[in-house]
Amino acid sequence: MSMKAHPTLAIAALITLLPAEAALADSPRQPEEVLVTGGRDAISNLAGSAQIIDEAMLEQFDYSDLNQVMSALPGVYIREEDGYGLRPNIGIRGATSERSQKVTIMEDGVLITPAPYSAPAAYYIPNVSRMSAVEVVKGPSAIYHGPHTVGGAINFATRAIAPEAEREIDVTYGSDNFQKYQLYSSDTSIRDNGGELGYAIDALRFSGDGFKELDGGGDTGFERNDINLKFSWRPGAAQNQLFTLKLGFADEDADETYLGLTADDFNANPYRRYAASQLDHFTSEHSQVHLGHLFEVSEQVSINSAVYWNQFDRSWNKLDGFIDGVAIRDVLAFPDVFTRELGILRGEIDSNGSDSDMLDVTNNAREYGSMGIQSALTYRLSWGETQHEIQTGLRFHHDYVERNHSIRGYLMDSGKMVYDGQQRGSKLRNEADTDAIALYVVDTIDWRDFRFTLGLRHENIRGNNDDFLTGDDNDKSQSVTLPGAGVFWQLTDELGLLAGINRGFSPAAPSAGGDVDPEESTNLEYGLRYQRENLRLEAIGFFSDYDNLLGRCRVSDPGCTAGEEFNGDNVEIAGLELTGRWDTKLTQALTGVVSFSYTYTESAFQTDFSSSFSQWGDVEAGDELPYLPEQIGQVQFGVRGQQWEATTAVSYQSEMRDQAGSAPLSQVAHTDAYTTVDSSVSWFVDSHWTVQLSVDNLLDEEAVVSLRPFGARPNKPRSARLRVKYQF
């Protein structure tokens, strides 16, 4: 599928101007139109759940790993994979974390993952190092953002254009030759006609040699580049308008693998990599063009529009198993049974030339694209004792994915992999595309001490999938209307109560068979917020009743085809989210802060069934979902002086089962419970210079954080970073 096949959208993308990345607001760095929540103050009386990690919080540790950033938020689940967060696995309120496929992910309010409808697995997520805030919305708050609303949405807010000259050079060096370089420049000039012209340049590069040790030697690191340009123009007319243009390019080169370890090999050396992964290599390129227009028609009416185009190409050459032999997962799970196959993976035994001994290295080449037009009209009015903010939004979206997975056979010979010279063709070659129209209407009503939110979201989706190997041509149409409602009651000056209900939805992909239903759920939330000058507390319970849980096959799942989907029938998920923050003055010169987040979650399938989806298998009613921790939490302690700041974060995650079931975890395959401690100290030398020393995993905790894609995988060991930032 090519963008050229849709000339109408292509022309519109060139001539239409869309959502503004900066707004007509007093704060140029955090304009409301970038922050889908409206910012931290707006969250305090929101009739729904939302959290924000602002620029100050991001600066405390300067993480480049999104997993570490998100671990500070309640109701957000992380499954680590490579230790650097190159391809995050993030779930919200029980929705699967697998490649973040059940989360709507945006940049400045615009869909940003490669193909959120046709292939929602998020192999591209923006680099958090160039963001000024990260937001999460859940429950009725997510009705604005689709297509995936079963759990919630994540918005990455980029830095707004500065009102006056601002320059920044940011350099970091750390363990395993970790290097990060970031240059930033922004300014706004006043034109003779009273208009304003602004720009921002953000160039980022970071890399590392990796912390794993490849048998026989070799690279296990990565390298990323990311450059973004942003331009704004505010005409000198009486009407308040803002035009923005954002251009971005990012690439990655990583020696990353799906291959993990057996339990015994993990215990001996968790950072080992088998010789059979020596050819594994990932490359990608991402390009984006976003054009925005914000029009403040009056104090009551505003229109925020956007046109966007994204392109993502990736190639992942990696070990996928044996050509005609035992599945790798079985080899690693039962090493005493498959000793020969394990010896080949380790490079200790040579292949004999048969296909059962031949290593399958597949080049998983894919091309993704997405483009669309969206606009939101906001109308504010008073009616009697009520104040209304009515927002209606419309989006036309098209995305596609082209897959061509080609196989090559390799012999293991004295620890080196040797190409067998045979042309083996493609394992998977297909093309899927989707056209979607999304519409929402939300009325936020303020009456006395109450805030009500009433809304509807409608999605009309038409997809097509062509399988060039089988000749199958599949059309998939889905249409759904999703209501939602929430209420917040300011009971006292300090205490507020909230409750909400909404229908959740995650569409089936175009490749799904006719008997596969989309994922739909009824989501409830209820809780309270308590706030004083220096204390904030929040407790929210949630319950999700799934009419149908949707499972999606990945390349690493045996017994199914990548992209194939499965019905999981009725599932119930319930939990509790707790958050708090206390700021206090310790002495005249010192201030302290303590913050925490905690999530308890339980889940259960409600029916008995058998599935060829390996993460489910033979399911009985009452079985728990895989890769959903019962408990996660983080506590942060911080102290700040006049020219320094120190922060320590203690994070915990409980065990997760590898496959659906109800047996005690000690009797089945599962990940480890683990606790990590991160610490950071910053010195503000003067108004220009900042020096920061950070240590991740201070106690050097070792844990099995995942048994997928193939075998036991470790967390990142203790590592340190020294950062110097110069602002002028």
From TrEMBL:
Alphabetical UniProt keywords: Cell outer membrane, Membrane, Receptor, Signal, TonB box, Transmembrane, Transmembrane beta strand, Transport
Subcellular localization, as worded in the UniProt entry: Cell outer membrane
Membrane topology: Multi-pass membrane protein
Signal peptide start and end residues: 1-22
A single BP term in Gene Ontology: siderophore-iron import into cell
Gene3D superfamilies: TonB-dependent receptor, beta-barrel domain, TonB-dependent receptor, plug domain
InterPro entries registered for this protein in UniProt: Beta-barrel_TonB (IPR000531), Beta-barrel_TonB_sf (IPR036942), Plug_dom (IPR012910), Plug_dom_sf (IPR037066), TonB-dep_rcpt-like (IPR039426)
GO cellular component: cell outer membrane
Primary localization class, coarse: membrane
Domain of life: Bacteria
All copies of domain TonB-dependent receptor-like beta-barrel, residue ranges: 248-698
Keyword flag Glycosyltransferase: no
UniProt domain TonB-dependent receptor plug: residue ranges: 44-153
PANTHER family per the UniProt record, alphabetical: FE(3+) DICITRATE TRANSPORT PROTEIN FECA (PTHR30442:SF0), IRON III DICITRATE TRANSPORT PROTEIN FECA (PTHR30442)
Family (UniProt): Belongs to the TonB-dependent receptor family.
Official protein name in the record: TonB-dependent receptor
